[in-house]
Design brief:
single chain; mainly beta; globular; 122 residues; seven-stranded mixed beta sheet; four-stranded antiparallel beta sheet; 11 strands
Length: 122
Amino acid sequence: LQLVESGGGSVQAGGSLRLSCVGSGYPYYAYCMGWFRQAPGKEREGVASIDFYGDAITYADSVRGRFTISIDNTKAIAYLQMSSLKPEDTAMYSCAAVSVAPRCDLDTHFNNWGQGTQVTVS
């Protein structure tokens, strides 16, 4: 399963962006998809995850209430709507997916990763 992210860019604090992650290849679906971010000099941080049914949703404390994750489970597409962006949200955002896993959350072992899309908030 190949993942391609889009939607990143530069925005002023308080603004919004919507990231998309499109999966292609085999399998055509993903049981669990997640968004992660990594800022320069910092460790990768889990941002949000969602299962195939859209029921199991997890957010990092730092983004809860500002970011919303959603999924199109017919095509392995995940979205991350980001609002009220802050300078500390600046990072490279990557999408991840796994087709089989015992659970779906930010600790899930994802085995498919995209290249990432840069988000800069000033």
